[in-house]
Each structure stands twice: as C-alpha cells, then as structure tokens.
Design brief:
single chain; 251 residues; 8 helices; 15% strand; alpha/beta; binds nicotinamide-adenine-dinucleotide; globular
C-alpha cells in the first residue's frame, strides 16, 4: 500500500482522523496538502509531517465556500503539479438534539460543511483528475450515513448525502480512471467525540455497550482503511462504503 510520489489532499487535516491519515500517507511516501478551517491545527499537522522528514503544505480552506475550494485545488496543482489522492474529510457534528429541536440555521450549517463541502470538493477535484488521467477520492461519511443516528438528524442527513454523492461520482467516472469511495466510521476517539461526550457524558459508555467490540475506534484504525482505499491495492473498489465500526452496523 505504498503511495510513493503521490500527491494527496486532505480536508479537515488539522485534527483527528484527517491528521492521522495525513501522517500515515506521508509515512507511505505521499506529499501532502493539508486543508483546514483552523490554521493552528493545520500547521501543526504540517509540522508533524516535516519533523518526520515528509513533505506537506497548509492551505487554509472553508470547504463550504465554493471559491475557497476552487482555490484549494488550484494551490495543490500550483505547488505539486497534480492531484492523485483526495480525502474529503472535513466535517462538523452539531449539538445533540432531536429532529424537532434542530434550528434551521444549524441544519443549514451542518449540510453546508458536510454535504455541500464534499460536493464542492468533488466538483473541483474531478476536473483536475480527468485532465491528468485518473485519481482516487475518499469521502468521510459515517455509520450515520448508513443508519439513523439518535439526536443527530442533520448530521445523519448530511452523511447519507455523502454516501449518495460518493456512489454517483463513482458511477460517473469509473471509466475515466477515477475511483470514489466512502469510509464510514462508528464513534472514533477524536476532538469531535470529546466535545460530544462533554455535552452528553453517558454517550461514551452507551457507545461502548452498543458496539459488538465494546470499545470506541481510534483515528489510526480509520487511517489504515483510508490508506487502502487511496492505494492501488484497492484498484477494483469504487462506489463502496467501507465501515470501520467494530461490527456496529452488522448487528
Ligand atoms: P475533528 O473535529 O477532530 O476534525 C475535524 C476537522 O475538520 C477539524 O480540524 C476542523 O477544523 C475541520 N473543519 C471543520 N469545519 C471545516 C470547514 N468548514 N472547512 C474546513 N475544515 C473544517 O473530527 P474527526 O472526528 O477527525 O472528524 C473527521 C471526519 O470524520 C468528519 O467528517 C466527521 O464527521 C467524520 N466522522 C467522525 C467520527 C468520530 O466519531 N470521530 C465518526 C464518523 C465520522
């Protein structure tokens, strides 16, 4: 699963799953572009990769803004000349509330980052990959893109949208050498989940009880799945939703 010489872009690369995947990609020979809304987190990931002898640049980007996503892809191409791997991973969770209690503003914000953000990434990444003759894209969905998620209605809607975008783009571009897959993690111990646990302390125990593996996942475990999807080892896999969930959705 080597990525020697490959150029990889990771949105939400300044924390959690995105950061661990960036570090793993760099260890496997890729040069990285780290895109994130948060410059401190993004720069810290870049520094971590450079300290280990890898190559990385930071591009401050809000994935919900078309002009910024277009610029992000242009900067990657200006810096490295091509874009081989795109991991569209930036996402937000929102406060835990039931369907009737979500505000319109919160629904719109979650959809703008998680669903529209992934669509905008596809919109600007795919033309570059078509021009260079191929590439591979991994979108971060969630188990909440496959099944309902209690008290996360907008999040679940946005992640189901990511699965729909993934399958559609996979079908559209399979014959052009572009593979598009989604990774679907269950609850993974990251800053996002620490925030959710702070809101709802019983979440942690409940999540562990509900999972056949009786634990939360780690960002490293998601990164390994993304590495496989990014590499030529998964060359006949496109349009897939790869769960990294300890068996949660098998129940
Ligand atoms: P995280 O909060 O640790 O990292 C998310 C990163 O995305 C942060 O660096 C943040 O600054 C960035 N970001 C947020 N909004 C952005 C925007 N508009 N533009 C650019 N960057 C933005 O979270 P994480 O757990 O690593 O989550 C990464 C992805 O994995 C998300 O899409 C999330 O929905 C998904 N996911 C997480 C879990 C989990 O349990 N942690 C489970 C399933 C799916």
């Amino acid at each position: 699963m080597q990525l020697n010489g490959k150029i990889a872009l990771i949105t939400g690369g300044g924390s959690g799953i995105g950061r661990e995947t960036a570090v793993l990609f760099a260890q496997h020979g890729a040069s990285l572009a780290i895109a994130d809304l948060n410059p401190e987190g993004g720069q810290a990931t870049v520094q971590q990769i450079r300290d280990a002898g890898g190559t990385a640049v930071f591009i401050q980007t809000d994935v919900s803004q078309a002009a910024q996503v277009e610029t992000m892809v242009n900067v990657v191409v200006a810096e490295y000349g091509r874009l081989d791997i795109a991991f569209n991973n930036a996402g937000i969770e929102g406060a835990p509330v039931r369907t009737i209690d979500v505000t319109e503003a919160e629904f719109d914000q979650i959809m703008a980052v998680n669903a529209k953000g992934v669509w905008l990434c596809l919109k600007y990444e795919i033309p570059q990959m078509l021009q260079q003759g191929g590439g591979t894209i991994i979108n971060t969905a969630s188990v909440a893109g496959l099944i309902g998620a209690h008290s996360m209605p907008a999040y679940a809607a946005s992640k189901h949208a990511v699965v729909g975008l993934t399958r559609t783009a996979a079908v559209e571009y399979a014959r052009k050498g572009i593979r598009v897959n989604a990774v679907c993690p269950a609850i993974i111990r990251t800053a996002m989940v620490e925030r959710a646990i702070a809101h709802l302390p019983q979440l942690e125990q409940g999540a562990m009880q509900n999972n056949p593996s009786r634990r939360l996942g780690t960002p490293q475990e998601v990164a390994q799945a993304v590495l496989w999807l990014a590499s030529d080892a998964s060359s006949f896999t496109t349009g897939a939703t790869l769960t990294v969930d300890g068996g949660l959705t098998a129940q």
